[in-house]
Specification:
The chain is α+β, with helices and mostly antiparallel strands. The protein folds into two domains: 7-79, Ubiquitin-like (UB roll); 86-212, no CATH class. Helix content is 26%, strand content 17%. It has helices spanning 25-31, 81-97, 112-119, 155-159, 184-188, 192-201, 222-225, 230-235; strands at 7-12, 15-20, 55-58, 61-64, 75-77, 136-137, 143-146, 169-172, 179-182, 207-209. The strands form three sheets. Strands 2-1-5-3-4 form a five-stranded mixed beta sheet, covered by helices on one side. The longest helix is centred in the middle third of the chain and has 17 residues, at 81-97. The chain binds FE2/S2 (inorganic) cluster (FES). FE2/S2 (inorganic) cluster is lined by residues 38-41, 49-54, 64, 66.
Length: 237
Amino acid sequence: MSKPKTPIHFTVDGKKCQAFLGQTILQAAKDNGVYIPALCRWEGFEPAGACRVCTVRVAGRTMAACTQPVTEGMAVENNVPDLQDMRKSLIEMLFVEGNHMCPTCEKSGNCELQALAYRFQMLVPRFPFQFPARKVEAAGKKILLEHNRCIKCLRCVRGVRTRDNKAVFGALRRSRDKEITVDQALAAALPEKQARQAMDRCPVGSILRKEVGFVVPIGKRKYDKEPIGSDVEKAKD
Ligand code: FES
């Protein structure tokens, strides 16, 4: 028999919330209808704490909500001006660090970075564009890897594996020089469902399933219909 879960109580911006011991702040907030923006997290996989978009503050200390467990009596600050501005600056930074040409991107409307930029009403980034020289790996049979749009969240590295548990994607180098790699032989052997999942796991338009472009027309895609986070916020209305 599984052990009963221990209920605990905490607040987010003063809102009383309930959680279970062992949940992260991000998960517990979601269960209480509170949206904390997140980019590198993918439910069901170990959090990487890579993007810091989920940063919250507890007792004056900032922390990643996707990795920090919630504790009894915790008072979490989430939707406060300085944290929102910090998150917006991180999103702006991700835009200027790569080459994101949203109007020509297959993921436009399904892109979490773009959707967050809309949520945070990003207009002109406060940082200069870097226009890095990056490549496109288009020679693979099923998967195209567009490095210009990669935000190095590592969701693909953690979440795309073959049936015999081999990693299809990897990461070279660290920090700014980090580069995602793909084993095109393994990628070509992925069953159709998993190849599509690889594309879905990527929060931006960096991993594309070849030959199925624009199946859902622009204007009818996920975030064309409802803003990111609204599903969480609506769930507890
Ligand atoms: Fe928490 Fe990226 S979602 S660090």
